[in-house]
Amino acid sequence: MMKSTKVYKFFDQVKQESKKIVWPQKKELITSVSVVIIAVCVFSFASLILDYGIHNLVKFLLNIGK
């Protein structure tokens, strides 16, 4: 009996909290998504350049003794 009231209380609290959710407006959502997409592209490009540089550095260092 005690466990079922705890479960009921939990789901009742979940229901109460879900009523407090505020969804963003369309303009705010588009702005946020755009910022995320741009940030992912910038960091991907930076990672690409860094990876290319490290690859060439290691390749150069391994070819020094030949």
Describe the structure.
The chain is an all-alpha fold and 66 residues long. It has a domain at 21-66. It has 2 helices and no strands. It is elongated, with a radius of gyration of 26 Å.
Brief account:
The chain is an all-alpha fold and 66 residues long. The chain contains two helices and no strands.
- Largest sheet entry: none
Approximate helicity band: over 70%
Order of helices and strands: HH
The gyration radius over C-alpha positions equals 26 Å
Number of helix segments?
Answer: 2
Share in β-strands: under 5%
Number of strands: 0
Q: Ends: how far apart?
A: 79 Å
Q: How would you sum up the global shape?
A: elongated
> On the 0-100 scale, what is the average pLDDT?
91
Structural class: mainly alpha
Low-confidence parts? none
Describe the SSE topology.
Blueprint: H1 2-18, H2 26-63
Describe the structure using short key phrases.
single chain, 66 residues, mainly alpha, 2 helices
